[in-house]
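# nightly structure sweep
# worker-07 picked up a monomer target from the shared queue
# config: single-sequence mode, recycle default, output format = structure tokens
# input follows
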Amino acid sequence: MLTEPPAPTWWKANKHKVFLSCGLLIGYLVGTHLHGAPAQPDIPKPGHTTPAPATPSSHRTHTTLGIAA
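# output follows
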């Protein structure tokens, strides 16, 4: 006498769909919420400057509240 095997359980029939869905969800969350290493800050480089005069001059460069003293 031949008998049919029992029908597969829901888990056995659908576990590949569950794993696929979970994998896609985790991949999406990792891809959108984790960012790469922060960008390196720009290191200031010395600019082109002229040397200060060797002797002090009588030219004033700073005023107090816009009123020359």
